[in-house]
């Protein structure tokens, strides 16, 4: 494809660390450079993704047959509990934070994050958090699900559950420190010319997500502290026999964990809003609508948590409120989906791996969003609550959504981060395998759920055996699909063709510096030549000026 | 190469955090640390809000509050404690007023007085713990009582450490001046926060 022309392009202004033999060492150090930290986040969280994936395969192999024959049911509980916790707290949350760390200071023309040392501390909390969690397998893994509802969570093995609590507290702290940094960086460190409304949409999305992290994660910490007392000291907070109330835990937990789904998806919305216009060569449709809908989502996201508790004895009038508020979230979400589709519409699409994953994201997220609206309706939810329908929904939004989006972002920003291009052929193989495996694995789960197969149980009714086998085969294809990616990424990083400063001819500031950028990012002060998405390819009269613009931003012409 | 790179970023960092630097640097390297502290305190207040909400819910769903058999709460000592903590905020404010006039001695004295009041508060709290007549796990009220006041007490300890750290650092000449006093300001902000949390706590735990 485009790779042929790359050698001829603008040379990076200056040689930099890349050729240095000991270069890799910095990734194991307490570096305060946001680019190093970004890559530390990404690589670490990807490793945890692989571990989480293995745990999931354990779950799927167990479910290949109706009887609990592969692992014993107690271990099965541990597998899905740790799987979910790893995927949420060690893969998607830190993975998106990794991209934000790398891209945001560059995209706003800053030298680094607002608090570089705090940033490093935030990252270095992640490995201990992960080790704490995984070590629970040696003492009896927590088996109460990632939600850890009492009383289930306080009647089992104490040690494993305690490790789970500590790990989530550590990872939550890391996330809060990150949020403080992103908010300060985005609000205070932009180059002077950049008003809020000139920011790339990724910045808006991180603003919204960080605000959510800041106000909701501490409440989870509060819940976990109380849970820890119940578990270790025998206090009665969540024990109804002694005057406590387990529903209070659920409220506190979901006050974080519903926003958490937006913490996991909003950054990805932001990345997609960057990727689609660049590769569709069209201005983003509805910049302000996308920007402000992120804020709307974070506000609404804070007041809908009890839709996870429709079956927890929530009074009818409250259910009504939460049902309506939840459905209302579909509006700002829908605005985004329409805006992306409208951006693609009539564009001059480059169907490269980044764009394929971005389009995959939009379509898969749409399915998950729609099943979400179904779940928001109380009578339907009561029917499918705690069935495989929920599992299908959450994987369409988290895998089809967040993970597809993160892959799109990897293909998009890899040249910037490493100075090398990824292989397009294997990128496409990766995409099609992922897309096929994903749908094979999770689409049938909707049906399983509607038929009443409960989630989180190792044993199930034999009538579901065939469909479950299909799901398990799909999960194997998914596992295999990571291999082309892994080899492509490693090989390209070492020996891929060199990338120019701006291989995608993009207009945002991160592409105005060399690939990879030097320490402190910009040799010359970056200049805001245009808005972030003024591609204008669809209006012929603008053609000339767009090419001029691209020369200014070092795009390949 | 790498070493020098790290040093470069280290220097910018130090400049941003420049305690020892003259006031003129303020424009060149805008200082966002107070903003960061404010964000941090928002997060902190959300933990307390969560815990307060939990307490109020437990209270609302209990048939009797405090549950039967809970000893009467003594109000005199916590009342005095409250007054001490609230006044310490004003005392501390004098310290910051002093450093804004380049009066390091004043800073140290007022902060010292604040620290002393903080210690008195903590001792009062401990004394109360030993005389409540109930234990951590007796019932839902006693549990929330200890966890809430204990968690707040930890924050007081942390605030105390900040104050002592500022006093320790102020021993170095020119560390704090009218132009550069992030440390004292941050400590004061934190202390006020701890103070406000206590007021709410006192209201809902003792008076309500
Ligand atoms: C249009 C937007 C959405 C709506 C209306 C919606 C609605 C719902 C509802 C009502 C439930 C509760 C089902 C039950 O347990 O009975 C649920 C579960 C869930 N949703 Fe969504 N959702 C939406 C988007 C998302 C997104 C964007 C994510 C993540 C990126 C997500 C992740 C989850 C997860 C993880 C669960 C399961 C939690 C658990 O019980 O373990 N949802 N959703
Ligand atoms: Cu939710």
TrEMBL record, chain A:
Domain Cytochrome oxidase subunit I profile: 24-529
MF annotations from Gene Ontology: cytochrome-c oxidase activity; heme binding; metal ion binding; oxidoreductase activity
Annotated localization: Cell membrane; Membrane
Keyword Transport: yes
EC number annotated for this UniProt entry: 7.1.1.9
GO cellular component terms attached to this protein's record: plasma membrane
Homology family: Belongs to the heme-copper respiratory oxidase family.
Protein name: Cytochrome c oxidase subunit 1
Gene field: ctaD
Automatic annotation (TrEMBL), chain B:
Source species: Planktothricoides sp. SpSt-374
Keyword line: Cell membrane, Membrane, Transmembrane, Transmembrane helix
Keyword Ribonucleoprotein part of the UniProt annotation: no
GO cellular component, one term: plasma membrane
Listed Gene3D superfamilies: Cytochrome c oxidase, subunit III, four-helix bundle
Protein name: Oxidase aa(3) subunit 3
InterPro entries noted in UniProt: Cyt_c/ubiquinol_Oxase_su3, Cyt_c_oxidase-like_su3, Cyt_c_oxidase_su3-like_sf, Cyt_c_oxidase_su3_a-hlx
Keyword Zinc set for record: no
Major site of localization recorded for this protein: membrane
GO MF terms, alphabetically ordered: cytochrome-c oxidase activity
Family, per entry: Belongs to the cytochrome c oxidase subunit 3 family.
Membrane topology: Multi-pass membrane protein
Pfam families linked: COX3
Membrane-traversing stretches: 34-55, 75-95, 107-127, 147-168, 189-207
Subcellular localization, as worded in the UniProt entry: Cell membrane
Gene Ontology biological-process entries: aerobic electron transport chain
Sequence ranges assigned to domain Heme-copper oxidase subunit III family profile in this UniProt record: 1-208
């Amino acid at each position: 494809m485009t790779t042929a022309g790359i050698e001829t392009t603008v040379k990076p202004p200056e040689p930099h660390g890349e050729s240095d033999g000991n270069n890799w060492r910095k990734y194991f150090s307490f570096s305060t450079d946001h680019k190093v930290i970004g890559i530390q986040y990404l690589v670490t969280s990807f490793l945890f993704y692989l571990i989480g994936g293995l745990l999931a395969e354990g779950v799927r192999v167990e479910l290949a047959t109706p009887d609990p024959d592969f692992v014993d049911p107690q271990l099965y509980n541990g597998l899905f509990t740790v799987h979910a916790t790893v995927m949420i707290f060690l893969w998607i949350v830190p993975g998106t934070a990794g991209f934000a760390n790398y891209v945001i200071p560059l995209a706003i023309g800053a030298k680094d994050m607002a608090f570089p040392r705090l940033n490093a501390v935030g990252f270095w909390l992640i490995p201990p958090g992960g080790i704490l969690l995984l070590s629970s397998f040696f003492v009896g893994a927590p088996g109460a699900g990632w939600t850890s509802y009492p009383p289930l969570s306080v009647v089992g093995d104490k040690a494993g559950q305690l490790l789970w609590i500590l790990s989530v507290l550590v990872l939550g702290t890391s996330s809060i420190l990150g949020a403080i940094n992103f908010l300060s960086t985005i609000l205070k460190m932009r180059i002077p010319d950049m008003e809020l409304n000139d920011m790339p949409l990724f910045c808006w999305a991180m603003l919204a997500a960080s605000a959510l992290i800041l106000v909701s994660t501490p409440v989870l910490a509060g819940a976990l502290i109380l849970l820890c007392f119940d578990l270790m000291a025998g206090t009665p907070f969540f024990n109804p026999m002694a005057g406590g109330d387990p529903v209070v835990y659920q409220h506190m937990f979901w006050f974080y964990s519903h926003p958490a789904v937006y913490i996991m998806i909003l950054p990805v919305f932001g990345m997609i809003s960057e990727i689609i216009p660049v590769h569709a060569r069209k201005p983003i449709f509805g910049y302000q609508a996308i920007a402000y809908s992120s804020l709307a989502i974070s506000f609404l996201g804070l007041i809908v948590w009890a839709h996870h508790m429709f079956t927890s004895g929530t009074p009818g009038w409250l259910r009504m409120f939460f049902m309506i508020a939840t459905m209302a979230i579909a509006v700002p979400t829908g605005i985004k989906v329409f805006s992306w589709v409208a951006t693609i519409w009539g564009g001059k699409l480059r169907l490269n791996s980044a764009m394929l994953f971005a389009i995959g994201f939009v379509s898969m997220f749409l399915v998950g969003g729609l099943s979400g609206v179904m779940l928001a309706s109380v009578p339907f939810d009561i029917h499918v609550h705690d069935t495989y329908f929920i599992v299908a929904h959450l994987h369409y939004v988290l895998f089809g959504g967040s993970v597809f989006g993160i892959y799109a972002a990897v293909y998009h920003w890899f040249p910037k981060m490493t100075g090398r291009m990824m292989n397009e052929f294997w990128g496409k193989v990766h995409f099609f395998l992922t897309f096929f495996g994903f749908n094979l694995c999770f689409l049938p789960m909707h049906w399983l759920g509607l038929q009443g197969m409960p989630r989180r149980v190792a044993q199930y009714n034999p009538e579901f055996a065939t469909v479950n086998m299909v799901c398990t085969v799909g999960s194997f294809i998914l596992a295999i699909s990571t291999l082309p990616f892994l080899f492509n990424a490693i090989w390209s990083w070492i020996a891929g063709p060199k990338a120019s400063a701006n291989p995608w001819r993009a207009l945002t500031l991160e592409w105005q510096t060399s690939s990879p950028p030097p320490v402190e990012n910009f040799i010359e002060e970056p200049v805001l030549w245009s808005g972030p998405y003024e591609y204008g390819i669809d209006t012929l009269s603008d053609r000339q000026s767009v090419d001029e613009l691209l020369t200014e931003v070092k795009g390949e012409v | 190469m790498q070493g020098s790179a790290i040093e470069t970023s280290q220097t910018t960092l130090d400049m941003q955090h420049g305690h020892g630097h003259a006031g003129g640097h303020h424009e060149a390297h805008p200082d966002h640390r107070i903003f960061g502290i404010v964000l941090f305190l928002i997060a902190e207040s959300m933990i307390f809000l969560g815990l307060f909400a939990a307490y109020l819910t437990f209270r609302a769903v209990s048939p009797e509050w405090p549950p039967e058999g809970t000893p009467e709460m003594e109000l005199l000592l916590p009342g005095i404690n409250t007054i001490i903590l609230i006044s310490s905020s004003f005392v501390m404010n004098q310290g910051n007023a002093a450093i804004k006039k380049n009066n390091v001695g004043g800073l140290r004295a007022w902060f010292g007085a604040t620290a002393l009041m903080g210690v008195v508060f903590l001792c009062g709290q401990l004394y109360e713990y030993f005389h409540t007549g109930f234990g951590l796990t007796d019932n839902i009220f006693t549990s929330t009582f200890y966890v809430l006041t204990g968690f707040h007490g930890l924050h007081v300890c942390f605030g105390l450490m900040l104050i002592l750290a500022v006093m320790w650092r102020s021993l170095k000449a020119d560390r704090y001046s009218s132009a550069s006093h992030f440390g004292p300001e941050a400590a004061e902000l934190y202390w006020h926060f701890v103070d406000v949390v206590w007021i709410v706590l006192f209201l809902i735990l003792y008076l309500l």
